[in-house]
Write a structure and sequence with these properties.
Layout lengths: L10 H20 L3 H9 L3 H26 L4 H19 L5 H29 L5 H30 L1 H13 L1 H6 L7 H8 L3 H40 L6 H24 L2 H19 L4 H29 L5 H29 L2 H38 L1
């Protein structure tokens, strides 16, 4: 595959994006349904219910490091098929779990499969996107995740309420099975050249250098994800506390703003670089969180969602494209692994940390404190960016002296 092709919407890119949509659709169909099912089927405690999510996330995080190492060897098809197969078996196995222990085992297995597949697909996408259109391409690729986040919970909860958990798991299994024919039709994507490049150099040295280059965007992604963890975990409770009857509309308008801004922000990233995206995105995100904390009506919720979605939609795909462009081709699996791990860890940390804050303050106060994480995001980004520019300027002066 020629990575320098001009065409973005190639057959390979479309098929990879569809596979990603199906993978995340399965995740989002089942994720909001598990607390309800676990409570009803096993009379589980709140701690046990939290394990259903946390064990999945931890197994996915651990698996991505393993996947990144294999991707450096070019084993893209093996990882994708293996990950999808494990995820299919785990999804089908949910229905047959007769105890909470077996259900937790299936969640760990699904995390392994999801970790493998979710690392492989964006690495494949980065391989077929023209390098000079990386920001735009990753922006469009990420829309598949946004679409799954928008419609997946609606589909999943509707199936659970109308037909039961068995029908939901069957639908989720069928969604994942569709990945196989799409992936089979996409066999022309080959990372073997990247793998051979990695094998002829010092792997540990290259990995260390790559990690240093992506440390800043990874940390920024973690800070952004902390705020999103607070939204996922406490928005419904905040709606009850503030007597906001349409609090769920936040996610709808948040997704709408992300859909609108991602293609444009990707093009700006490609032409102007990440500096033109990060500052504006952080300001929008902070504005959304502060507006949400002051909400007294549905109009406030919609405005907060639009502001937050604009910021989130600008920052996140730009960070992913930034991380991918900072590393050699053979290290793109590592970059994607670190991107998703910083996202998952940030969401988990945000849920716990902001939950502790909420115990000592109301939810509106918690969201104002959440906005401070984006203030830290902005300060960290500006300080490091200014330091790096001064360092490059100094090095340039030394070379010309």
């Amino acid at each position: 595959m020629n990575t320098h092709q001009e065409k973005l919407w190639s057959k390979e890119f479309i098929l990879i994006t569809l596979c990603n949509l199906l993978l995340f659709l399965n995740l989002q169909m089942l994720l909001p349904s598990f607390p309800v099912y676990t409570k009803d089927a096993f009379n589980a405690s709140d701690f046990t219910v939290s394990l259903v999510t946390s064990l999945f996330a931890l197994s996915a995080i651990a698996t991505r490091f393993f996947a990144a190492g294999i991707l450096r060897k070019g084993k893209v098809s093996i990882i994708l098929y293996t990950g999808a197969a494990i995820a299919v078996l785990a999804t089908a196995g949910y229905y047959w779990c007769g105890s909470i222990a077996l259900l937790l085992v299936m969640r760990v297995l699904f995390g392994i499969g999801f970790g493998l597949a979710s690392t492989t697909l964006p690495t494949m996408a980065a391989h077929v996107i023209p390098p000079h259109r990386m920001g735009e391409g990753i922006g469009y690729f990420g829309l598949s995740t946004s679409l799954a986040m928008s419609i997946g919970p609606i589909i999943g909860l509707s199936l659970l309420g109308s037909f039961g958990f068995g029908t939901l798991t069957t639908a989720g299994t069928l969604v994942l099975i569709l990945i196989f024919p799409l992936a089979f039709a996409n066999r022309s994507v080959d990372l073997s050249q990247a793998g051979s490049a990695a094998s002829t150099s010092s792997s540990k040295k290259n990995t260390g250098a790559a990690l240093k280059k992506i440390a800043l965007p990874g940390l920024l992604n973690l800070l952004l994800s902390v705020t999103y963890g607070g939204l996922l975990s406490f928005l419904a409770l905040y709606g009850k506390e503030a007597h906001l009857s349409h609090i769920g509309s936040f996610f709808l308008f948040n997704a709408l703003a992300i859909f609108l801004v991602r293609p444009f922000s990707g093009r700006i990233f490609d032409s102007k670089g990440h500096f033109s995206i990060m500052i504006a995105g952080a300001v929008f995100t902070m504005g959304g969180l502060v507006t949400l904390s002051l909400a007294t009506s549905t109009l406030y919720i919609i405005l907060a969602a639009l502001l937050y979605g604009l910021g989130y939609g600008m920052i996140q795909p730009s960070i992913q494209a930034w991380m991918i462009k900072e590393v050699p081709v053979e290290q793109r699996g590592l970059a994607n692994s670190m991107f998703f791990n910083s996202l998952d860890f940030g969401v988990a940390a945000g849920s716990m940390l902001l939950g502790v804050i909420a115990m000592h303050a109301d939810y509106s106060g918690m969201y104002r404190i959440s906005a401070l994480f984006m203030g830290l995001f902005l300060v960290l980004y500006l300080v490091v960016s200014i330091w790096q520019r001064k360092k490059r300027s100094s090095q340039s002066e030394q070379r010309t002296a």
